[in-house]
Amino acid sequence: MDRFSEIRAFVTVAEQGSFAAAADRLDLSRAMVTKLVSALETRLGVRLMHRTTRRLSLTEAGETYLAQAGSLLAELEDLDALLSQGASKASGRLRVTAPVSFGMRFLGSAIAGFQRQHPQVEVELSLNDRKVDLVEEGFDLAIRVSNLADSSLIARPLARVRDRLCAAPDYLLRRGVPQHPDELAGHDCLLYTLTSQPTLWEYQAPDGSTGRVKVKGGLRANNGDILTNAAIQGMGIIRQPEFLLQQALADGRLQVILPDYQWVCLDVSAVYPVRRHVPGKVRVFVDHLVTFFAEQKNSPSGDGL
């Protein structure tokens, strides 16, 4: 048994959560997968997995080995694909992570279009609002909606989104419509917790000057859809990306506040780890996203970013 087969068996069992599922994935017998993992443990001289009749879990050594082995396996598979099929050939599994609300609105359509063109690519999408470590968690690509700091990742711009300030008409009727950002300090604001300073809202005035206002409110959440629904119910003022608010603005459930002021403007980017050979599946998917979001921006329906 070669080392590559042992590593692939171990990584697949860890990802699938059972020997039976890994055997199906690898098109091997369960006995062979068990034999491969046992051979790896024997060669390394450590136990990588705890096995019981009900569940399987990784040991501390197993967790450490998986983090490195998964990346190594991906590199080997990329190199095989590069040499045997050519750099532009797109095939295999593509693991993508993206923010929940953004992914739900856009990525289903984007992936459907992509797979019509590249049916040999199996896309695995994970929606999560936390910042995922791509290398450690074995992802090929992330969609990030943020102004990226310097990093070791390659970033490809896809779009720009801007925040809007909104509230429900009945809230504004009860509490009044703010005429200047400083007045927000006296209002109930709905706070998004995945920013570095949820209670500090920065803005640019019509004359180009900048400022910030400290806000407060009775609801904090790590998801923009939750805050949008709370705003629609009249709970307070929301500052969220325009794509989250479009429908509620269009049908009058929300109303824009301080429209002459500019709030946060964020980049939408596809980011992926630096590799000597960028896998064809990553490159063609990113190219597809660039085209997809350009079409969204120019859509006559007004459903773009």
Describe this structure in words.
- GO terms for molecular function: DNA-binding transcription factor activity; sequence-specific DNA binding.
- InterPro entries: LysR-type_TF_proteobact-type (IPR058163), LysR_HTH_N (IPR000847), LysR_subst-bd (IPR005119), WH-like_DNA-bd_sf (IPR036388), WH_DNA-bd_sf (IPR036390).
- Belongs to the LysR transcriptional regulatory family.
- Keywords: DNA-binding, Transcription, Transcription regulation.
- The chain folds into three domains: 3-69, Arc Repressor Mutant, subunit A (Orthogonal Bundle); 92-156 and 267-298, Periplasmic binding protein-like II (D-Maltodextrin-Binding Protein, domain 2), CATH 3.40.190; 161-265, Periplasmic binding protein-like II (D-Maltodextrin-Binding Protein, domain 2).
- The chain has helices at residues 3-16, 19-26, 30-44, 60-85, 100-117, 134-137, 169-175, 224-232, 242-250, 280-297; strands spanning 49-51, 56-58, 92-98, 121-127, 141-145, 153-167, 188-192, 200-204, 210-214, 216-221, 237-241, 255-256, 265-273.
- The chain is α/β, with parallel strands linked by helices and 305 residues long.
- Strands 3, 4, 5, 6, 7, 10, 11, 12 and 13 form a nine-stranded mixed beta sheet that branches. It has a two-stranded antiparallel ribbon with strand order 1-2. Strands 8-9 form a two-stranded antiparallel ribbon.
- 42% of the residues lie in helices and 25% in strands.
- Mean pLDDT is 86; it is low at 300-304.
- The radius of gyration is 24 Å and the shape is elongated.
